[in-house]
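S.,

Sequence below, as promised.
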Amino acid sequence: MTNEKYTFDDLVEIVRQLRAPGGCPWDAEQTHESLMENTVEEVYELLEALDSGDGVKMADESGDLLLHIVFHAAIGSDSGKYNILDVTDTVCRKLIARHPHVFGDQIAANSKEVIDNWDVIKRAERGQASVSAEMKGVSERLPALMRALKIQKKAAKANFFSKNQEKNEEIRKNLLQFCENCGINSVEGFSRVLFEMISIAAEFGIQPEIALNSEVDRFIAEFEKFESSKL
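The prediction came back faster than expected:
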């Protein structure tokens, strides 16, 4: 098939034909699990394209990621679990529900109010009655540093650090002193220390990703106790 300009519906149909009997054996064999690593890789390649500012690369890598979304939906359709229309329907309903200031009668004066409303609506949708439940909802498949940052931001909103500062004061004091002594007050300085910490972890046989995720889990458990004590 040759079109002057292909559409989203064309993409869905092409993927369907690839997986159909008489199509491509490789495409027909793929599962959610077999595609997971490649799906993650496509996300990072899109980010790299966005950094480049090259429109052609952005379109190319966006297409690769979109292909994975459509491909996973095709697999879901074959198993009877969901299809691409469920994907578009779900995201449209989510956008409408989380923008009541656009599609409803709510008022949001600025971006902060938009984000605050979004968080409240999101927690209600997921049945998350507490911040700790919200923390547990953060994907464990995120890179550990990204996951840790998201969890810390949620804790900061709940004033956890200011109320529990004494528990980590000694560690923070020593780290700050170390940073001052080494002149680490820039992105470059911090990144070098972080890089060396990973090297040191390797010397001790510690997997940094696993170790940080373990600390995040411990932190969530500690926060949950803190939150329960306020009830």
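Residues 55-79 form the longest helix (25 residues).

Coffee later?
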